[in-house]
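BUG-529 | component: ligand-complex export | severity: low

The export step for adenosine-5'-triphosphate jobs runs without errors, but we want the raw record kept on the ticket for reference. Input record follows.
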Amino acid sequence: MSVGAITVDGVSKRFRLERNRPSSLKEAVLRIARTRDADEFWVLKNVNLDIAPGSFFGLIGHNGSGKSTLLRLMAGIHRPTVGSVEATGRLSALLELGTGFHPDLTGRENVYLNGAMLGFSRKQMTASMDDIIEFSGIGDFVDEPVKIYSSGMYVRLGFAVAVNVSPDILLVDEVIAVGDEEFQRRCLKHMDMLRGKGTTIVLVSHNTDLMAECHQVGRLDHGRLVEVGAPDDVISAYLEMVDSSDNTLHTHDN
Amino acid sequence: MQFSLTPTLSPSVRKSITLIYHFAERESKSRYKRSLLGWFWSFLNPLVTVGVYWFIFGAVYRAVPPVTDNGNAENFGLYLFTGLIIWTLFTGLVEGSMEWLTSVSDLRKKIYFPTETALLGGAASNLVQTLLEVAVLVVIMAALSNIGWTLVFLPVAMALALGFGLGLGFIVSVLNARYRDVKYLAGILLNVAFFAVPIVYTPELLEKEEIPGIARGLVEWNPVALFIEISRDATYFLQVPLWNRFLAAVVWSVTTLVIGWVFFRKQSMSISEEP
Ligand SMILES: Nc1ncnc2c1ncn2[C@@H]1O[C@H](COP(=O)(O)OP(=O)(O)OP(=O)(O)O)[C@@H](O)[C@H]1O
Ligand SMILES: [Mg+2]
């Protein structure tokens, strides 16, 4: 498989729900005696998806449709219950806030830690440290523990690391929205630049303007990938669906 | 011809090594965070420990220690210290593992990395601490000229305790990620286990009639007692360990490590799904 490609092959993901999960040993022991009831929840159901190297792929869908879960599977954070996910090349992911930062460490230490997780040595990270600090625009705060950062600063530094390590694959989950206007624009510009360099980008967003920029958009609905195609088609289908089911809250107790 | 190690390491191995180093460094730094004397405490701690035991068991209780190789180091404080080093290494690994895994579990929900690196890094940091204690012990023993070639068994005893402690650590840390009571349970069990290991008493104490055979067997063949015995043979009695007890120690250590590792590899992926 070529570098930068993502293959999602027949993937289903099951979570055990909190209310049915034993949280103490005593409960766990008592549970053995009881029969298993419907204590599982399929978040993703038989998802098949091929993302070509260098493409810009968008994911949309209602809250709880499984977008973040799919990204986490691509990032290797979760293991699929059924099927397989393969992502070749260096992968860097920005999933929600706090993107793999340790609250007690300073921004700088976290950059090293993040780098180590991406497979970069200390030396390599030192080389790109200035670029990262510069891009994030957090200045002297880089030597303060990240727990005192504002949400925006968190995301700024996380994004700065994720994009400055020249990834082959970049996964972004709605985080940009937390930054201010100036930063959002900078991010988009930088993602454009990465795209130009052939980085595969997968973006989850509820921002349809942003989605329109993608090569391809996939729509998730209750864990099923119901549609993959040109942005305009998929987005209008999505909006139609939203309009038709106005005011119906999608939850998973279906 | 030039030999180089680095190109033969796969990227994922190299990544793991970088992470282990990172976690080890972090653990070592946090140990004496915000302290002026830093590593000095690492030496002071064991020194004071030996001193206190020396005084209490030697001068106050006048406990009779077993005779050392040359009779010079005959002191219950030292006898106790040889055992305590191994015990501390072992419990540090078991209790530390749970802490190390908990401390990275939030991180692991947001980014993929091999979680075992957190445990291995913590273990490395603990090992450094143990080496400092060992240095204190060896210096004292050398000063009392109770030292010999049997010292080569000391690293072996440490390695065996490391394998066993880490193996158990792999298991309890994963269990603790799911059920937080494991930490408390382990704390209690370790407190009890302390007395199942001849640290504050000598194994000869068990040769009394009124002690049931089971209790004696438990104390004589439990893994930590076996490791301690090897370390004492190495530094205190200066004799070669009995081969059958040595073999038992190796079997305990290797089996526990293998089982723990397999269990951890199978279960640790689900840590990211814990609420
Ligand atoms: N670790 C977990 N354990 C149990 N259930 C989970 C877990 N993670 C996610 N879920 C459930 O899986 C479903 C899909 O979640 P996911 O975060 O993938 O949705 P999403 O499409 O990203 O939604 P949003 O638009 O709100 O970000 C939700 O119902 C959520 O409650
Ligand atoms: Mg989401």
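Assignee comment: Attached the raw record above. Chain B is about 70% helix and 0% strand.
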